[in-house]
Design a protein that fits this description.
By secondary structure, the protein is mostly beta strands. It has helices spanning about 5-15, 20-30, 175-180, and strands spanning about 40, 45-50, 60-70, 75-80, 85-90, 95-100, 105-110, 115-120, 125-130, 140-150, 155-165, 185-190, 200-205, 210-215, 225-230, 235-240, 240-245, 270-275, 285-295, 295-305, 305. The strands form five sheets. Strands 13, 14, 16, 17, 18 and 21 form a six-stranded mixed β-sheet that branches. It has a five-stranded antiparallel β-sheet with strand order 1-2-3-9-6. Strands 12-20-19-15 form a four-stranded mixed β-sheet, with no helix packed on it.
């Protein structure tokens, strides 16, 4: 039996599958569409959604929805050991001054013996914050998205979608879907909000046998860290966080508190899986941390000088 969702996908593929990108853009301009047609690929499909009114500076005016077939996943902006991050091409857009993509907190998956970072489940929505070059006329969104859908194998996909955003239009039919995704985007905070500005709260070791990033985040009572994702310029790659009693070196003994006069709290160690061939040990390395707990998701920046 064909499900309603499959029927909708089939109809979209039939109606728009033979159209050129320019034709799809023209069709989007004909009326006030709540979404672009689905662009169907193997394991996933993509469309653009109209969200909050363009005049709403606090809302996301549009979103990218990627729906996944059962068992498939797609990747975050930093995909981990393997995988392909999405690539966005907005060059075909009109009256677009700026566009920024927000990323809901991702998950870590085991895939063919390696750790990858991305999204599973039914779908993921990436909110888009948009500024028009001329606030009096519509924004014409035109996206070419290169991404991947993975199950037992990874399938590279490329999709074109277009959508018109009139300046005086009310919120779109899918605005609540975009708003829900926005609530899953990690909140940006200063390192001090997590206690990561304290002496000894962050350390980076390049020593053979126990290299990694050690963190002493300040947590709420009974708050549990689910994962920490680390981004940095160059080929830095870290594994999932572990309590200090489960160190990568195999030594179960906790590391001494580097600042015994301070109560730094529990230590979390992220094993170093890869790093640039040349590391300047005299300079702080900037890292972006996305910390996901059972209560919240936050993003912060730190700088740490490596030791050996």
């Amino acid at each position: 039996m064909i499900s309603r969702r499959q029927a909708v996908l089939g109809a979209a593929a039939f109606a728009f599958g033979g159209a050129t990108f320019g034709q799809r853009l023209a069709r989007a301009e004909d009326g006030l569409a709540a979404a672009s047609p689905w662009v169907v690929g193997l394991g996933a499909r993509m469309r653009l959604l109209r969200g909050a009114p363009l005049a709403d500076k606090d809302g996301a005016a549009a979103g990218i929805e990627i729906a996944l077939d059962p068992g498939f996943k797609t990747y975050w902006r930093m995909p981990g050991d393997a995988g392909v991050p999405p690539v966005f091409d907005w060059s075909g857009s009109g009256n677009l001054a700026s566009i920024a993509t927000d990323w809901p907190a991702p998950q870590r998956f085991a895939e063919a013996g390696v750790s990858v970072i991305g999204y599973g489940g039914d779908n993921v929505v990436l909110p888009l914050r948009i500024a028009a070059a001329d606030a009096a006329i519509p924004v014409k969104l035109a996206l070419t998205l290169s991404y991947a859908a993975c199950k037992t194998i990874c399938v590279p996909l490329k999709a074109d979608a277009a959508l018109l955003l009139p300046p005086d239009a009310p919120g779109g039919l899918y605005a609540s879907l975009i708003e829900a995704a926005s609530r899953e985007v990690p909140r940006r905070v200063e390192a001090a909000a997590l206690g990561l500005d304290r002496p000894g709260s962050v350390s980076l070791s390049l020593a053979r046998g126990h290299s990694g990033l050690s963190l002493h985040p300040r947590l709420e009572a009974d708050e549990r860290v689910l994962d920490i994702f680390v981004e940095a310029p160059g080929n830095w790659l870290f594994g999932a966080p572990r309590a200090s009693s489960d160190r990568v070196s195999g030594d179960p003994s906790p590391q001494p508190n580097p600042s015994p006069q301070l109560d730094l709290g529990p230590q979390l160690d992220l094993p170093l899986l890869d790093h640039p061939k040349r590391v300047d040990r005299a300079e702080d390395i900037p890292f972006t941390l996305t910390l996901v707990t059972d209560r919240r998701a936050v993003e912060t920046m730190i700088g740490v000088r490596p030791v050996t």
